[in-house]
Recover the amino acids of this structure.
């Protein structure tokens, strides 16, 4: 695979289209990036009830990711006028991959990506959490909950670790 083919593949995958090559590379550098482990772990804990939710146990969905198609697990308390379902994944890795892709492509999380692009790793998880106000209907309360989970469980200590 040539560099051009790789760039084209990443641009399609991360929904970066209609830009010049230089602008495409610049936008991919914003989107194709990591999130702090503490933030990922806190969201997984909050969204899955520490792995106890039906969605995490039966659908390998740690992050409460929804599908607008209605194909998936229907929440028992879903209002009758709603049509969404909660996504199901074959395994936890597929869920994590989709979660990361969603954070890196969905316009709702552009603030998170902008803050991240202006910093250097290891990223400040609490600053990035501010960009997740739209992740939950709880808004600022959700961000506060994530920050409390990160603090109470000393998750920020994991942000400096890197896999080899």
């Amino acid at each position: 695979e040539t560099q051009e083919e790789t760039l084209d593949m990443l641009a399609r995958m991360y929904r970066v289209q209609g830009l010049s090559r230089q602008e495409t590379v610049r936008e991919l550098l914003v989107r194709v990036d990591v999130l702090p482990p503490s933030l990922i772990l806190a969201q997984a804990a909050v969204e899955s009830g520490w792995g106890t939710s039906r969605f995490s146990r039966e659908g390998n969905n740690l992050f409460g990711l929804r599908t607008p198609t209605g194909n998936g697990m229907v929440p028992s308390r879903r209002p009758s006028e709603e049509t969404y379902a909660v996504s199901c994944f074959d395994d936890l890795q597929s869920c994590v991959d989709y979660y990361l892709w969603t954070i890196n492509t969905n316009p709702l999380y552009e603030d998170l990506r902008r803050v991240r692009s202006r910093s250097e790793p290891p990223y400040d998880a609490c600053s990035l959490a501010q960009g997740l106000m739209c992740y939950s209907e709880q808004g600022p309360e959700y961000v506060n909950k994530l920050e409390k989970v990160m603090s109470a469980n000393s998750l920020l200590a994991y942000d400096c670790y890197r896999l080899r």
Q: What stands out?
A: The mean pLDDT is 93. The first helix runs from residue 3 to 13.
